[in-house]
Design brief:
15 helices; eight-stranded mixed beta sheet; Alpha-Beta Plaits; alpha/beta; binds zinc ion; Aminopeptidase; six-stranded mixed beta sheet; globular; binds 2-acetamido-2-deoxy-beta-D-glucopyranose; 20% strand; membrane; zinc
Length: 576
């Protein structure tokens, strides 16, 4: 690794911003949102004199990596005509409404929803002619796209760049609230903003992967290491497309056959004149538990003291009364983010700062547990999200159902989450003399359930586990070549070629996501998964809601990052 130990000395930062800034909802995944959002909370004046340098030594600080291939770098970053061209390419992709719904049927050429994907494919082929001439392009998982840019040395593991083509639907009731129509891709030059569904989640990354590659091909770049671009088609629904793409890649190259994966998730935020890069190195786990209480029906003129609805309500109340334990584990990437952001002023919270300086984890846990923006980075969440039961005023409800959505903490597991639910289910079942059954999988029937307590005349509680997912393995950071190239490329781009021409401080820190990406299907392929675009993230991009937008500068910074990253990996990496 060249120039990796080239740490830049940094001034210790002691002063605090003393103005109140507006709280803004930041871009991308909720978790990153949480962390970054805090950066703009009310700032306190206080006289605590601890030294922030004691929070962590050298955290976040990396030296720049000299770009290996610079032919078009200045054009990409500073040529306004070029920028306008890339914005137009994104706008065209936004105009094709590749909306995906929870009940969208399986891919089929005859269905209107999937026609949009066919049109998008035609559009991409038109926009990136060199790429389509040079790379192999295949379909997998229906309308998933897999591009193969063959390297000259087949003993090097391929690099995988991911994103997804689908977008969440626009609610027809809110179309009128958009500043510019949601599928216009309208660009306001004065604001440097592109409006439309998918501008921030995540057609910007689809375009930046393809544009960076197109530009590299045009500039005569020929990779030694194979590069795969893998674009899912239903990330916002089941993610089945990504599963097929991953299986396809595993079949072709084998298990643990991939050098590294980059996907959506993190980027670079600007705070107080410095840049903070947050590649996401882990994701929380997931469990939807559908709990149904079956009880005898009958005429409601002679009801029992508690109907199925009443009993289920007690169960729900007792679940909500027992939240999960917070745990700050130093292996949790969110802890790295907290330290780096606090040390360098992107988070300004006097209590968090004090506990970090003193290294008092218990006090830190107690403080974080009161902060909704932070606590779920360190504990499992539970939310009662869907409920149903009963059909008629004069009939006792024969069943009542609640869906509990859990995002599982890194230190926990699906098993531990289920045990927590079962604690309360057992208690309820004992109190009201009911049976208990557990079913695994969306399509499971009671014939293949596990019975934990036999049914009684009063009925039974059935827990159906939907979409269980363990927390993601934590990707390597310090000491890993893959991480160092990501960090060095970022520092070089934002420091030496900082937008606006001024030299800026650049910090790089691992981060955690509370949501999941298509990478959840790619664990067999590599341990090195980074949810990171390298692009600048702006506040208020409004993913999944009205007025989703992104800046031209953000789009261009992603293209510039990918242009450098692809060529840096090829030049600097020594890992086969
Ligand atoms: C572009 O943005 C500016 C500044 O917000 C605004 O004044 C102008 O009306 C916008 N233009 C259009 C066409 O929406
Ligand atoms: C809530 O939990 C506390 C202790 O964790 C317990 O004392 C209390 O009885 C519980 N309340 C309900 C309504 O379950
Ligand atoms: C912290 O995480 C590591 C690695 O996952 C684990 O071995 C350790 O037990 C955890 N510590 C606590 C206190 O949970
Ligand atoms: C904000 O940036 C200025 C200039 O780089 C620096 O002196 C100051 O310490 C920073 N503020 C915080 C809270 O880190
Ligand atoms: C959780 O794991 C423990 C230990 O392996 C096991 O005994 C228990 O049955 C598991 N619980 C569930 C609900 O699967
Ligand atoms: C990963 O490998 C395991 C074991 O071979 C297999 O059961 C699983 O389906 C694979 N996962 C994916 C997403 O392909
Ligand atoms: C291909 O890569 C392998 C692994 O790094 C290396 O040993 C080999 O020399 C390379 N072959 C060529 C022709 O460069
Ligand atoms: Zn997305």
């Amino acid at each position: 690794m060249r120039r990796m130990s080239d740490y830049q000395p940094l001034r210790e930062e002691r002063a605090f911003l003393q103005k109140k800034s507006k709280r803004v909802l930041p871009a991308l995944v909720v978790a990153i949102g949480a962390i970054i959002g805090l950066a703009s909370l009310t700032v306190y004046k206080f006289s605590y004199t601890g030294d922030k340098k004691d929070i962590c030594t050298e955290c976040g600080i990396y030296g720049p990596l000299k770009p290996a291939f610079t032919n078009s770098l200045d054009e990409i970053m500073y040529d306004s005509e070029y920028k306008r061209g890339v914005i137009d390419k994104l706008a065209g992709a936004i105009q094709i409404p590749t909306e995906i719904f929870d009940d969208t049927p399986k891919p089929s050429p005859d269905l209107a929803v999937w026609k949009n994907f066919q049109n998008l494919h035609i559009y991409l082929e038109e926009q990136f002619p060199l790429l389509y001439k040079t790379l192999d392009v295949e379909n997998a998982g229906g309308y998933g796209l897999l591009y193969t840019w063959k390297g000259s040395n087949s003993s090097l593991k391929p690099l995988v760049l991911m994103a997804h083509q689908d977008v969440v639907p626009v609610d027809p009731n809110t179309v009128g609230s958009w500043t510019h129509p949601p599928f216009s891709g309208f660009y306001n030059d004065t604001e440097d903003l592109i409006y439309g569904r998918g501008t921030a989640d995540i057609k910007d990354m689809v375009i930046s992967h393809l544009e960076a590659s197109e530009k590299l091909i045009k500039d005569g770049f020929k990779p030694k290491r194979t590069i795969l671009i893998s674009l899912g088609c239903d990330e916002e629904a089941s993610g089945a497309c990504a599963t097929d793409l991953a299986k396809h890649i595993e079949k072709r190259y084998g298990r643990d056959s991939i050098y590294a994966i980059l996907d959506e998730g993190g980027g670079v935020v600007e705070r107080n004149g410095s840049f903070f890069a947050v590649p996401v190195t882990a994701e929380k786990g997931y469990l939807d538990a559908e709990i149904t209480l079956f009880a005898p029906g009958g005429h409601s003129s002679v009801p029992p003291d508690h109907t199925s609805i009443g009993i289920l309500s007690k169960l729900m109340a007792s679940l909500e009364n027992d939240t999960y334990q917070i745990l700050v584990n130093e292996t949790n990437p969110a802890f790295d983010t907290l330290k780096c952001f606090t040390k360098f002023g992107a988070i300004q919270d006097k209590n968090i700062e004090k506990h970090l300086i003193e290294g008092s984890i218990e006090k830190l846990e107690a403080t974080l547990d009161y902060k909704p923006e932070f606590k779920y980075l360190f504990k499992t969440s539970q939310a009662l999200d869907v409920i149903s039961g009963g059909v008629k005023a004069n009939a006792l409800p024969e069943s009542a159902t609640v869906l509990v959505n859990n995002r599982i903490a890194l230190h926990s597991s699906v098993n531990e989450t289920l045990e927590h639910i079962l604690l309360h289910v057992r208690d309820t079942a004992n109190r009201f003399d009911l049976g208990i059954k557990v079913l695994s999988g969306r399509d499971a029937t009671e014939d293949n359930s596990v019975s934990l307590k036999p049914d009684t005349v009063n009925g039974r509680i059935v827990i159906k586990l939907l979409d269980p997912l363990e927390p993601a393995p934590i990707s390597p950071t310090i000491g890993s070549e893959v991480w160092n190239i990501i960090a060095g490329t970022t520092v070089s781009m934002y420091k030496e070629k900082a937008f606006g021409g001024k030299e800026a401080n650049v910090y790089v820190t691992p981060a955690l996501s509370t949501g999941n990406t298509d990478t959840k299907s790619y664990w067999n392929l590599t341990k090195k998964i980074y949810r990171y675009s390298g692009g600048l993230l702006i506040d208020g991009t409004n993913e999944h809601t009205v007025d989703e937008k992104n800046s031209g500068r953000s789009l261009i910074s992603s293209v510039a990052f990918m242009y450098q990253y692809i060529s840096n990996v090829d030049f600097y990496s020594t890992e086969s």
